[in-house]
Amino acid sequence: MAAGPPELALARSTLARYLAVRPTDTVTIEAWSHALPWARAFVVEARRLGATPVLAVEDEEGFFGSLATGAPVPTSPSALAGLGGAYVYLPGPEAFPRLFGLGADDLGSALERHDEAWRTVARSSGLRAVSMTVATVTATAAARFGVNVDAWRSEVVDASLVPPQRLRAAAAGLTRPLLRARTAAIRHPNGTRLHVRLRPGRWFEETGRSRRPALRQDTIWTTVPTGRLVVPVAAGSAVGSWEANRPTYDRLGEPPLSVGARFAFRAGRLTEVAFDRGGEGFASTYGRAGRRPTAVAALSVGLNPCVGRAPEVGDLASGAVGLWIGGPRGRTTRSGTSAAYVSVLHGADVELDGRPWLEGGHPVHGRGPRR
User: Fold this and answer.
1) Is the peptide bond preceding residue 255 cis, with omega within 30 degrees of 0?
2) Which residue, 11, 72, 152, 356, shows the most beta carbons closer than 10 Å to its own?
């Protein structure tokens, strides 16, 4: 971790590297009340850069008090997006279990917070926005996941300080074969043997600034930390087996983590499902979505060298392969559907059109097809 207070190091890195803040910019910081220590650092750093900070706070008790009166779920005011410049969002609420009683639509509004009206204004004003994962690292969430909150926060901060240029350099070493690749094969000593067809040239990278924005549903947001390639999979193409070797975390799931996910696919359909524990969460996710998870929507490859085993960011770890079942996930990309399960495998071998691409999770360059 960088020397000095982590709040200030994170604010400096984010405003300079991810948002390229200029002295003429307005920097809007929208924070839930539990995240005020982080928000204050962004205010101080914005002023140091000569920019004009605007701090908007969603008081958590006020938020839940409003819900108790029967008022609509509070969302972010569109006027904040109209200020233009840079935008920093520090998510909440800290006491997220209090959201469990909401219906699906209200829950979605509370979690997404920035609705279509807000996004329309943001696009018109040319807003550059980041969502800071560090604000979601709380004692409440750590207790639910059974992890140490300080270790989790330290890993997320370190991963957030990785320069986007480093992530883009890691992506550059992997993207050239994706322009024409039509198939991918994933293998691992744990028994994973999965084959899929790809959609050539349709990959996109999440490295702090998308170089292929036409393929993104929402180019306003960057989530920090970031760092992965996402490769869409042709519908109905998955064949074989998959076994995860990292947990999948879902703070709103019951139970909140699943371990040892094993899937079998035939002609693109999910035919067998098993878990060492936590499979109820997988079933409930798709129950809320009202449809069966019959498709592999995408593969991802992590690019961030500072992600290890921290909850909710595991698919960003360098070389980690993610299997996206059911659709693009919404939490980190802030796009796509909420019905998505991302299963993570470390140390996999991956071939594109029979040519090695990853070996043991490490990039392979300049080798021909296997014989």
Assistant:
1) yes
2) 11
pTM of the model: 0.90
What pLDDT digit, counting tens, does each position of 209-233 carry? 644 443 444 578 999 999 999 999 9
Domain with 131, as residue range(s), is 6-136
- SS3 of 296, please? strand
Residue with tokens 């410049």: 85
3-state secondary structure 286-300: HHHHCCCCCCEEEEE
Specify if 43 maps to a domain: yes
* Tokens found for residue 279: 């499979």
283 dihedral zone (left: phi>0; alpha: psi -120 to 50; beta): alpha
256 part of a folded domain = yes
Same domain, 198 and 335: yes
Closest CA to 348 of 151, 199, 190: 190
Structure tokens given for 59:
């008081």
The amino acid sitting at 7 is E
Q: Is 197 exposed, middle or buried (0-12, 13-18, 19+ CB in 10 A)?
A: middle
User: Does residue 99 sit in helix, strand or coil?
Assistant: helix
Distance of CA 301 to the CA centre of its chain: 12
The radius of gyration computed from the CA coordinates of the chain, to the nearest angstrom, equals 20
